Amino acid sequence: MNRRSSSLLREAETLSHYFPYLKENLTNIDFLEFQAATLEEDGAIENNELNDLLTYCDLICASDGSAVSIETKVAEEKNNLSNLDEYKKIRKNIFNKISKETKELPWVFLDIDSTLVLPGKSISLENKQAIQRYINEGGKVSLVTGKIPVSAIPLIKELEIDHLPHIGGNGAIIFSKKESKTISQLGSLSSELGEILFNLEIPYCIYHSNEIFYSSDLVLQENIDYLRSVNEPTPNYVKDIDYKQAIKLLMFINEEDQKTQDIVLKAFEPFQSRISIIRTSPKLLEIMDANQSKGNAIKTLTESHQHYCRYSVAAGDSQNDLSMLNVVGMPFIVSNASSFMKEYGFTTLPSCADNGVAALINNLLDGNIL
Fold first, then answer.
1. Number of C-beta neighbours around residue 319 at 10 A
2. Domains observed in the chain
3. Which letter does DSSP use for residue 284 in this model?
4. Nearest CA to 242 among 181, 173, 190, 169?
5. Rounded to an integer, what distance in angstroms lies between the CA atom of residue 326 and that of residue 312?
6. Contact 138, 117 (CB under 8 A)
7. pLDDT of the residue at 51
8. Is the pTM of this model over 0.85?
9. C-alpha to C-alpha distance for 290 and 270, rounded to whole angstroms
10. Are 164 and 278 in contact (CB under 8 A)?
11. What are the backbone dihedrals phi and psi of residue 247, each rounded to the nearest 5 degrees, phi first?
């Protein structure tokens, strides 16, 4: 059985816990040959539960077996774009049925900057009250951020969700007030990558789990000021950085500077199977281990809590949020999201400035899946 077939089977087996009809038919399904009716040339959508469940399984499994959202599958494989709204309805119906079966609120995962909070600003009263209402009703809300824990903890404490686990470093760290665990890091490879960037005269910082470092005068005061403006700790100048503890490498490259981005991507081609390069803001590009992502961290976290990952909700705005939106059941973007994210057709919330997170959470509490 190939990776995709194995993924299809795993998704179906998990869903069968909530849908007895699927469980009864699992032994009769050939996952090596399976193709959902919605992916046939005529794009026909049959309105029955088994077909909907199998269609859903098919749409959340990429050709390589990795987890994707319906939006990502349709956008990247260009299959039946006109049926995206119908696929979303299938997902919504399945999500609602799981909700009725579990009688629990879905786990909510939120990006911080430009999704929950405007960069460098305080959280709005509306978003704060919505989150506290959700917690009081028995729900879980976890922040999933590119920031290191020390940067996120003040907000977590203000929201009174420090008893819950959160994710930092773009998927490198799972932390709570009781413990912090590094689950992925760039490590010693960051030394070699940093040397390449130094020779290219590109300023960069090295992130450890709770500190930020730089070691050359390529990093300007304006770079340091920018990090501080988004509530990151002030980077420390250290002549000899401990690269073994690096969780990620951050480059100061504006998104308009396509020439420099192309130079970096070309220079790092020999490492493309070992790293991922993700834009996290209009001014920042980050290098991480190839297996490090918000999505993988959410899967690790939900599995450790015996929570079905697809019975979760997430909201984000940037490229580094895509992996997170790919693994949850109901993905959303705020209306101020990057143009990159808007290309996928995710359901759009009001902007960060207009309290899109509050709108999402209040609808969940009122029983409305947007």
1. 18
2. 3-101 (no CATH), 104-174+293-365 (3.40.50.1000), 189-289 (3.30.1240.10)
3. E
4. 190
5. 11
6. no
7. 83
8. yes
9. 13
10. no
11. -95, -25
Radius of gyration over alpha carbons of the chain, in Å? 21
Nearest-angstrom CA–CA distance, 282 and 103: 41
Other C-beta atoms closer than 10 Å to the C-beta of 27 total 6
DSSP state, 245?
G
pLDDT at 341: 96
Confirm if 18 and 97 have CB atoms less than 8 A apart: yes
Indicate the residue type of 307.
H
Per-residue pLDDT, 367: 83
**β-sheet with 312-316: strand ranges across:** 141-143, 107-110, 312-316, 330-334, 347-349
Q: Are strands 173-175 and 166-168 parallel, antiparallel or unpaired?
A: antiparallel
Could you say which residues of the chain have pLDDT below 70?
1, 30-47, 79-80, 370
pLDDT at 6: 85
DSSP state of 351: P
pLDDT for the residue numbered 21: 78
Sequence-ordered list of residues with C-beta below 8 angstroms from that of 132, at least 6 positions apart, any chain: 159, 160
Please give the structure tokens belonging to residue 206: 């090295």
> Are 323 and 109 within 8 A, CB to CB?
no
What does the pLDDT look like over 32-68, one tens digit per residue? 556 554 444 444 444 477 888 888 988 899 888 899 9
Q: Token pair for residue 100?
A: 């009725």
Phi then psi for residue 249, to 5 deg, are -125, 130
Around 256, how many Cα atoms within 13 Å sit in the side-chain half-sphere?
0
Element counts in the chain: helices (H) and strands (E): 14, 14
